[in-house]
TrEMBL record:
Keywords: Cell membrane, Heme biosynthesis, Membrane, Transferase, Transmembrane, Transmembrane helix. It comes from the Bacteria. GO terms for cellular component: plasma membrane. It is a multi-pass membrane protein. It is found in: Cell membrane. This is Protoheme IX farnesyltransferase. Carbon 2 of the heme B porphyrin ring is defined according to the Fischer nomenclature. Converts heme B (protoheme IX) to heme O by substitution of the vinyl group on carbon 2 of heme B porphyrin ring with a hydroxyethyl farnesyl side group. GO terms for molecular function: protoheme IX farnesyltransferase activity. The gene is ctaB. It comes from Kiloniella litopenaei.
Length: 306
């Protein structure tokens, strides 16, 4: 992996230093990770002390940020090539790689230890698995080797609801696995939509995303398969009594629109449709888990002190 001397000797000062450390943590990803973790915590049977609930969410956030920092350290060579990532702190020369790596490792270890000591070790082990899967399995092994990188690697981002559930119950159950599967099945069409309109970037960086390796048409059909397969998965929380009919109705409507956007992507060569599907997919996941909380959250009053 090649790196510039400027990057290795970058000096940090003042507000820029704080902003760059924050950017290393991938806050956009962190927000969604914390929210889905919060949903698992809220719908889990039983209660958790409000302070411990806050600690659990804090640990999820810090672990996500740590994994993001290590990802940016490892991917600094390809980040410098892609227009979407070349302004990140390391390729832009604002932070030395070893500083980013140390920051990421410290956050990762700290979050797991605090989760175990303050909440429970089941949640801590799941947090460590999510972090390790993202860093070692996805970032270091899959991303540069296979077009199925995001299919397998997407499991890392699907752990937060299970972690939230385990924070309350101390266990892993079929219900928490169902929540895991919702995000796991959502991930491929979400990221492949991005890859469709950023395929030039991935090609230049030699990252074997599906559009680069198998072509745009094949990618669109695979996105459609996953989007159709997503229907029974997002409705599964109703079957397992994690959610009620309100969630089921919203999930059905939101998923139908997601499918319609996928069909538009399939029928058009314009990148604007893929871009629209990508941004809708973020809103889609947020809506699903927001309604899940509203519809069936037995622990909500306990968490807010009611």
């Amino acid at each position: 992996m090649e790196n510039t001397t400027t990057t290795d000797t970058a000096s940090l000062s003042g507000v820029a230093q704080v902003a760059d450390f924050w950017a290393l943590m991938k806050p956009g990803v962190m927000y969604l990770v914390v929210f889905t973790g919060f949903s698992g915590l809220m719908v889990a049977p039983g209660t958790i002390h409000p302070f411990l609930g806050i600690i659990a969410l804090f640990c999820i956030a810090i672990a996500s940020g740590g994994a993001g920092a290590i990802n940016m350290w490892y991917d600094r060579d390809i980040d410098a090539i892609m227009s979407r990532t070349k302004k990140r702190p390391i390729p832009a020369g604002r932070m030395a790689p070893d500083v980013a790596l140390s920051f990421g490792v410290i956050l990762s270890l700290f979050s797991v230890m605090i989760m175990g000591l303050a909440v429970n070790w089941t949640a801590a082990v799941l947090l460590a698995l999510a972090n390790g899967f993202y860093v070692f399995v996805y970032t270091m092994f899959l991303k540069r080797r296979t077009p199925q990188n995001i299919v397998i690697g997407g499991a890392a981002g699907a752990f937060p609801p299970m972690i939230g559930w385990a924070a309350v119950t101390g266990t892993v159950s079929i219900e928490s696995i169902v929540l895991f599967l919702v995000i796991f099945m959502w991930t491929p069409p979400h990221f492949w939509a991005l890859a469709l309109y950023k395929d030039g970037d991935y090609a230049a960086a030699k990252v074997p995303m599906l559009p680069v390796v198998s072509g745009r048409r094949n990618t669109k059909w695979q996105m459609l398969v996953y989007t159709i397969a997503l229907f029974p998965v997002v409705l599964a929380p109703v079957y397992f009594n994690v959610a009620g009919l309100v969630y089921g109705a919203v999930a059905l409507i939101a998923s139908s629109y997601f499918l319609w956007l996928n069909i538009k992507v399939l029928r058009s060569e314009e990148d604007r449709h893929a871009r629209k599907m990508f941004f809708y997919s973020i809103l889609y996941l947020f809506v699903l888990f927001a309604v899940l909380i509203i519809d069936r959250a037995p622990g909500i009053m306990s968490l807010i002190g009611g």
